[in-house]
């Protein structure tokens, strides 16, 4: 979740500053990019060298670096760089100043420039923590949308025992992960996705299949799972393997198997995406033994499979239903007609006439048509980026 994310850690002047080194380590271990800003007073408790070594980045403290080549440490750029900003430890002095918008050092100015979620881990002696002015600062900072990670109770540097110790770095880290998880846009959503081809057996050796790779459906599953949804992915025969804590994969082979597995999840799903290339026909009789070529030229009688998406449209209660339409001609007209006949909320149109939008490709070019007659056209993109466009469109619709 934090891999590749930019984390800014602000360190202020309290004895708990020595624990900030462990906090930096936690974020580095999670694959994040970490930069530290120290207030001048914090350097009495932890050296910039320690933090620079652990974060693998220069540590910032003053507005200017006044050595041989004087340079301005741009607080605006630092603030905008951050995906998350954590001030740990946050002393009573820093809390008071930040709650008032005072900006007499680089950390304060960066705080005022940051647009990302900001967490404060207060650390001070118990009477300072209990003081009404500290309570007022915390309340004010919270009312601005910041999150407070409450201090823990225990032995304090003064020798007194009580509430005021900065939360342990591991607890700060876990708190932030849990908080980010809880705030994900699709938390509490259960998503059902069908993906990949189906294979319709002719005999124990042969089948009727299609060229779908399952890539588009898998990218959708990953995108939705990263946004907090619990995903049930019903995947036809595909070479792609999927591993994500929020994705449960059910591997199926035939259209019949995909139908019964998908319908089992349908009722309890809030969003359903049918991205599978389901066979429309299946052999009426499957030969129990391999059909031998000495026999007369075989004729395979086909019967229609059940249309999974149409059945879902008929049974729909509150599910947000998304279908795909793969067309070679009269694209918009055919997609619109599928949107209506299958009772969908939205349909994603692929045209085989668009270069780079074919089976097995890593790219796709889509047009989204909505129930309310909107048409959104997108450029040719990687399937990962196309998944982002589709999921963002779904999010806009379900939050409207
Ligand atoms: N679909 C399905 N079950 C089927 C056939 C299609 O769930 N037996 C779904 C697909 O996953 C897709 C949508 O229906 O989301 C449209 O599929 P498509 O193959 O484009 O159209 P069909 O309805 O099969 O019609 P046609 O093949 O005639 O274009």
Q: Can you give a write-up of this model?
A:
This protein has 400 residues and is α/β, with parallel strands linked by helices. The chain folds into 2 domains: 177 residues, 3-Layer(aba) Sandwich (Rossmann fold), CATH 3.40.50.1950; 209 residues, Rossmann fold, CATH 3.40.50. Helix content is 33%, strand content 24%. It contains 13 helices and 24 strands. The strands form 7 sheets. It has an 8-stranded mixed β-sheet with strand order 15-14-11-16-19-20-22-23, sandwiched between helices. The protein has a 6-stranded parallel β-sheet with strand order 3-2-1-6-7-8, sandwiched between helices. Strands 4-5 form a two-stranded antiparallel ribbon. The chain binds cytidine-5'-triphosphate (CTP). Cytidine-5'-triphosphate binds next to helix 11 and strand 19.
Which geometry do the CA atoms define? elongated
Terminal-residue CA separation: 27 Å
For the record, the count of structural domains works out to: 2
What would you say the CATH architecture of the largest domain is?
A: 3-Layer(aba) Sandwich
CATH class of the largest domain: Alpha Beta
CATH topology of the largest domain: Rossmann fold
Strand order of the largest sheet: 15-14-11-16-19-20-22-23
pLDDT averaged over residues: 95
Largest sheet: 8 strands, mixed
H/I helix tally: 13
Alpha-carbon Rg, integer: 28 Å
Helix content: 25-40%
User: Which molecules other than protein and nucleic acid are bound?
Assistant: cytidine-5'-triphosphate
* Unreliable parts: none
β-strand amount: 15-25%
Output the structural class: alpha/beta
**Number of strand elements:** 24
CATH H-level homologous superfamily name of the largest domain: CoaB-like
